[in-house]
Amino acid sequence: MNKSLCFCNSGLSFSQCCQPYLQGTALPETPEQLMRSRYSAYATKHFKYVLDTYALVRRSTITLQDLSQGSDETQWLGLDVIKTHSDEAHEAHEAAEVEFIAYYRVCNIIYKMHERSTFCREENTWRYDKGLLFEDGGVYKPQRNALCLCGSGKKFKKCCL
After folding, report:
1. pLDDT reading at 91 higher than 60
2. Burial, 79: exposed, middle or buried (Cβ in 10 Å; 0-12, 13-18, 19+)?
3. How deeply is 24 buried, as exposed, middle or buried, from its count of CB atoms within 10 A (0-12, 13-18, 19+)?
């Protein structure tokens, strides 16, 4: 992966995308930005940011140790945002969902995590509430000549494989 590109596969540089959120110099304005920044936080092992972006009701049951468990063996490879949905019934858009697929490697095995995350607004800030995992997750088997998950544009077998 080109290290100047953001880990979340937005196509922007890390400094223009998720880095300001992780450094606390900006707040995500949308649930998708929050979800992408949380992915980048996992990829860069910035678990304090992950913890701080949980909904208050969830934050009390999670520790930094919980979040960092297994992180030394995990390499995050790529992110695909499938769709986003805001609660149009509320003028202020107090709830939203983001469906995504994240790819990661543990012990040279590549996995796919397909999730629909729910976000809520607390104190005028988007927070991660909970996620629903889809059944199609698990070991990832790329198709022949598939592009790499990291967004490099190269074939998977010539890049991150």
Report:
1. no
2. buried
3. exposed
Answer whether residue 88 shows pLDDT above 70. no
Q: Which helix (H) or strand (E) holds 89?
A: none
126 pairs with which residues across the strands? 121
Phi, psi of 121 (to 5 degrees): -95, 130
- Rounded to whole angstroms, the Cα distance separating 39 from 61 reads 20
Positive or negative torsion for Cα 36, 37, 40, 46: negative
Is the pTM here over 0.85, yes or no?
yes
Contact 73, 108 (CB under 8 A): no
Residue 1 · residue 158 · CB < 8 Å: no
